[in-house]
Sequence to fold (104 residues):
Amino acid sequence: MEEVVFFHRLSKTLILADLIENFPPGHFTGLQKVIARLAGILSPDGKAPVDWRLTFWNRARARQCFSRMRAWTPEKIIVAHGGCYQKNAGEELERAFQWLGAHA
Fold:
């Protein structure tokens, strides 16, 4: 999988499509909700869905890309799927990418 990320410098906003999905818990019901919880895409702890995470074979390269996003020091994160992060963007970014390993 590939993802294009954008950073709007003026507003310090990171814009992502699928690298973080953060659906409100009420968005899904029944089995879909169970699957969404297992995939890790429910707010407030959204992240890349498990099927996406499994496609990142080159974790070292993924960590380099993550480091670049982190270096931009975003203040907000806009995601295509679910709730956006209007504050604590750096902390949310770190939390959402914990799956990359301790040295992300």
Observations:
- The two ends are 19 Å apart (CA to CA).
- Strands lie at 6-8, 13-22, 76-82.
- Residues 6-100 form one domain.
- The chain has one domain: 6-100.
